[in-house]
## 1
Amino acid sequence: MKVLTVSPEVFPFKKTGGLADVAGTLPLALKKEGVDARIVMPGHKGISAHMKYVTDFAVDMNMFKETAIIKEGRSGDVPIYFICNHRYFDRDVLYGYGDDAERYTFFSNAVVRMVEEGVFVPDVIHCNDWQSALIPALLKLGPKTSPDTDRPATVFTIHNLAYQGNFTPGSLVLTKLPGSLYNMDGLEFYGQMSFLKAGILFADKISTVSPTYAQEMQTPQYGERMDGVLRKRAQDIYGILNGIDPSVWDPFTDKNIPHNFDAKGFKGKEADKKDLQHEAGLPETRDPLIGMVTRLTDQKGLNIFMPAVEEMLKMGAQIVILGAGDDHYQNALRALSVKHPGLKVFLKYDEGLAHRIYAGSDFFLMPSKYEPCGLSQMICFRYGTIPIVRETGGLADSVKDLSKDPQKGSGFVFLNYDPAELKACVGRALDFYKDRKALDDVRVRCMGLDFSWAASARKYILLYEKALKG
Ligand code: ADP
């Protein structure tokens, strides 16, 4: 099977979020399963990779033509194509420009053209997020359509429904898709033209990054106004959990943490906790330590955390937070940490400190409002740190509640988005902490959980097979 993954960002070349991790790691895991996996992304400014020229061609932008230069590099043993164009991609950041619709229309058309030119002819094109969502529509309805049996099958993955790529109606002209598509059952979305809708309506199969989010996004509560469109495709929507790279997140080899350890004993973990307390200026006691590494936004549950935090400290927890984000949360947290010696906040992005928090904490808190997948809960498992999470999206799919199932549980889970439920859940975790033997048993259990990419890659292959049959 030949699969081309299309993404606007790919780790390690360019990354602004989890999408880059998926687009960079999944193809490597597919390759190990015997797939001829390749990647294509824009040749953004500042990518340092060995690239060789492959070809170039003009992309018809309706009123004018723009040149796409195709270069090829490698990510491990996976070939990666870069679509280069000075005017569109030689920029400091990836998104947020007035001509984003034009830039990613060009990108999508160039990918289709690259396939037509035979640079790589995949069985399946796997598109990710709105920046490549036009591709399924272009293959079906674009100017050079071929019979359905001749075109590659398409899978469209939504990583976060909040990002939809909605632009002025005139944006449709550039795509060269039929103007008749601008209606409620087509690409029109509340007076705008929506790239995301193109992916949802025209991809052979749709996926998102957890089974629970696949259901949630079809409801008004989580649907970001796309739930109606998604429900129309309910039969074709799948949820596949993302994975993490267990070699990056390994307490036995991690160079970012002062004391390495494995599931055979937690002396190293205890020493990491002491060091973390020291680094954070927290009292170096045996009190339970709760860590958070997060964007400081509503999505991550900050507006139920803020009213609950003082109570949690009163219950005897220490809390250390590493995060950057909304100013009002930063200011409120800064003010609280001045008042409470048991709370420390680091308002920045810091990879090394993130590792030290995963390793040195007893619990890891994720009270998310919604969470398409979430990686931090999988990461903290690796370090024997027990997650406390809200039952939503990927958190619901990866953390089993210890209160409901002490034999198989892996964390503490609460359902409703409510500060009182959060407090009660933290209370259960703090009670549990008193039983050292039970705590260590659960740590060992968490460390044995497998959230690597291999299992997810096999699920994607099954999905590609379904797309091909469809
Ligand atoms: P999202 O992609 O929605 O922010 P995820 O849980 O999927 O949430 O992934 C977040 C990733 O970013 C994790 O690997 C987490 O450790 C990391 N991260 C988040 N904030 C910070 C920060 N301030 N410093 C270091 N790493 C961070």
## 2
Amino acid sequence: MAAETSLILILEAGIPATRRNRIRGRLAEFGVEVRVTTGGEHDCLEVCGEHYPILTLSPESWEGVARVVTLAPDYPHAARKGDQPRTIVTVGGDGSDPVRIGEGFVVIGGPCSIEEEARGIRLAEEVKRAGASIYRGGAFKPRTSPYAFQGLQERGLEILVQARERTQLPIVTEVMDTADIGKVAEAADLLQVGSRNMQNYSLLKQLAQLRKPVLLKRGYAATIREFLLAAEYLLSGGNDQVILCERGIRSAAGEGGVILDLGAVPELQRRSHLPVIVDPSHGSSDRRRVLPLARAAAAVGADGLLVEVHDDPQHALSDGQQALSVPDFTRLVEEVTAVRRVIE
Ligand code: PEP
Ligand code: MN
């Protein structure tokens, strides 16, 4: 099958044939087919084939190029092609009950940070009872202030493993540093890349080598394209088990400095085959907005939620202001389940 047109370079009016041919030659060096259209006011060069390496060289700035029209995304692995089926990511199954993300609706719950053993295990039992099917808890914490609680690190991972043994819930926890990938992957069923690390390409490249799923959170200043290009690092590197997470974007216009971009959910689902979940906790940074935003996320068609839960939010060591109590989390699961029943 002939490759489809992926890119058109509209050349400046009256461009000399020698310069046009030079541009054509530069394109052809990329192994693509180039068709030339002449006769109109503007000559055009139509590129068929893999155009994304060309796009990285800013062809719109090349001498003699008037405009560039891009007809295919530059994240070919993350992009959804035609009616390609949606990817389903299975989390857990080895010492835990497997959960399929991308069909149905999945709720992930747990504290921002694992703070101590008894609480870490008890919260896993409580979120399970409330209806969560994956347990979250931070061990390596990316904190804005160096004076803030940095997480229990390795000890936190051990507690998460105990929580899984007790509840059979798969666990998700953040990996911040390439040096920690081994131990985090050993403990966790799903590795979270936090908002601050969405564009940590060394981390993404190494996680691409892993045979474990990755939960990629949207950088809080990232466009949809940048988000999907971050996912492309994982997919093109060999890890196709990727879940996207909308977690709010930074804006002075948003209460608390953040706006949960729910429009990103259908947009990501249209452009990509990857499952998309929503984090209304970091997406609001205020527990009073978590339940309404969770309902909205369920209604907008997200594949699941990531929600911070604490049994004593007033005394939580991180993100207590946005943590739901266990009774409020229980109510949230009931309400989002009801919303899903209506829209399905
Ligand atoms: C978290 O999940 O606790 C977290 C730090 O999230 P984010 O990276 O979205 O800020
Ligand atoms: Mn948090």
